[in-house]
Amino acid sequence: MNNAPPSVLERMLCFEVYSTEHAFSRLYKTLLAPHGLTYPQFLVLVLLWQQDDQTVNGLGVALGLESSTLTPLLKRMERAGLVARARDAEDERRVRVSLTEEGYSLQAKVKGIASCVADATGMSEEELMTVIASMKKLRGGLEASVRGGAKLPQ
Questions:
Q1: Do residues 58 and 74 touch, judged by C-beta distance below 8 A?
Q2: By three-state DSSP, how is residue 142 classified?
Q3: Using one digit for the tens of pLDDT, what is the confidence trace for 55-66?
Q4: In this predicted structure, what is the pLDDT of residue 19?
Q5: Paired strand residues for 54
Q6: Is 82 exposed, middle or buried (0-12, 13-18, 19+ CB in 10 A)?
Q7: Which of 7, 66, 85, 92 falls 20 to 30 Å from 44 in CA-CA distance?
């Protein structure tokens, strides 16, 4: 039995979130690599499977990504034949993104990923919903702090 006191890192919420994100990344990489997908590409597809033909801006807002990050990602997905990008007919400043037939067909190939990831956590559905609610509250508080001009105490 290890009676050593917890390290400084073990008591830091930010480190726990950071290391958990890395664990998620490794798991998703393992699950998505056989399909030639990265995790951000998978998230774009999830949004388009839910509602096809969205604007780049709408996707960026939903994913919390700037267009300077999202546009190169979408270009790679377009080259891979998963999505098509086109100027909006009503407002040419907007670019719309829609699934190709290949993008649609990928949904059936990766449909088990969500349950695989849920199983990998070792948590019940109720526990996962509690964690999700806590993470949303945590993110909201952090974003509000940034908007309010977070500063170190004097």
A1: no
A2: helix
A3: 999 999 999 999
A4: 94
A5: 97
A6: buried
A7: 92
Mark 88-107 as b/e (b = at least 16 C-beta within 10 Å): eeeeeeebbbebeeebeebe
In Å, what is the CA distance from 118 to each residue of 72, 81, 127, 132, 140? 30, 29, 11, 12, 23
* CA–CA separation, 83 and 100 (whole Å): 5
- Kindly report the CA angle at 87 between 85 and 93, in degrees rounded to 5? 125
Provide the residue count of the chain.
154
pLDDT digits (tens, 9 = 90+) for 16-71: 999 999 999 999 999 999 999 999 999 999 999 999 999 999 999 999 999 889 99
Give the residue carrying structure tokens 């009503």: 90
Q: Does domain 19-110 have CATH number 1.10.10.10?
A: yes
Boundaries of every domain in the chain: 19-110, 112-148
Inter-residue contact 101 to 66 (CB < 8 Å): no
Sheet hosting strand 83-87, strand order edge to edge: 54-55, 95-99, 83-87
pLDDT tens-digit map of 78-104:
999 999 999 988 888 889 999 999 999
